[in-house]
Amino acid sequence: MNPDDSLYKDDNFEPDERPVPKVFHSFYEERPFRCCTSCGEGLNDLEDIYQVTKTFHGTEVILEYAMCSPCQQNMLKELSEESVERLANFQTERSKEPQNNADTEDYKCEFCLRSREDAIENQLHFSMAAICFASEMVERPLFVCETCMLEINEKMSEQTKRRWRDFVDTHFPGVPSDALPEPTTVPVL
Ligand SMILES: [Zn+2]
Ligand SMILES: [Zn+2]
Questions:
Q1: Ligand index nearest the alpha carbon of residue 94
Q2: Which domain holds residue 155?
Q3: How remote is the CA of residue 122 from the centroid of ligand 2, in Å?
Q4: The pLDDT of residue 176
Q5: What is the 100 CA–ligand 2 centroid distance (Å)?
Q6: What is this structure's pTM?
């Protein structure tokens, strides 16, 4: 039997597209994100994907944003080539591709498989990201724990860290960006 067959026989198996789970809604607006945090473009009419990213400290949301694909591409262009390449390599080499399940809220770190429960119990930072199209989540959601975020951060150039700080300072004036593990997301390339 092909090991992948079991996946499709599992009652909990979810197709790739489903409504954006609540954990990826805007906590502050108490509804799904409507606009790109960066350019303000409406996400429902956008004929492109967008990414919702949320950073938590334990159960507390400390940063959340939605970024449309054009803004994400622009952002990637402004990061150093070296950083983007290292990030891509890290993802290819280290991703363990856990089958995160939004319905049972079962999330494991992309790179070390630490569970979300464990990260919450230990009051750690962690980031979660979902690729969405209009009101649907279209790919497996990502979870990255603080330890792995810091490891990725060490690989990033000063230019990349500076660009990230600018983004936080511009869009989240109340959040001291130095207090956050940077970058708090793994851009999905
Ligand atoms: Zn945008
Ligand atoms: Zn991890």
A1: 2
A2: 16-170
A3: 13
A4: 63
A5: 14
A6: 0.85
Type of residue at 47: E
Provide the token pair at 136. Answer: 């649907």
The answer to whether position 73 is within a domain reads yes
Amino acid at 103: D
Residue 181 belongs to some domain of the structure: no
What pairs with residue 150 in β-bridges?
Answer: none
Distance from C-alpha of 15 to C-alpha of 140, rounded to nearest angstrom: 10
Q: Is residue 46 part of a domain?
A: yes
- CA–centroid distance, 61 to ligand 1, in Å, is 22
DSSP β-ladder status, 125-133 and 18-19: unpaired
The per-residue DSSP string of 110-129 comes to TTT--BHHHHHHTT-EEEEE
User: What domain count does the chain have?
Assistant: 1
Q: Would you say residue 72 lies in a domain?
A: yes
Q: How far is the CA of 78 from the centre of ligand 2 (A)?
A: 26
| Res. 187 pLDDT band, cuts 50 70 90 | very low
Q: Which helix (H) or strand (E) holds 134?
A: none
Strand partners, 129: 53, 142
Alpha-helical regions (H) of the chain: 5-9, 69-78, 81-94, 116-121, 146-154, 158-171
- Is residue 49 within 8 Å of residue 132, measured between CB atoms? yes
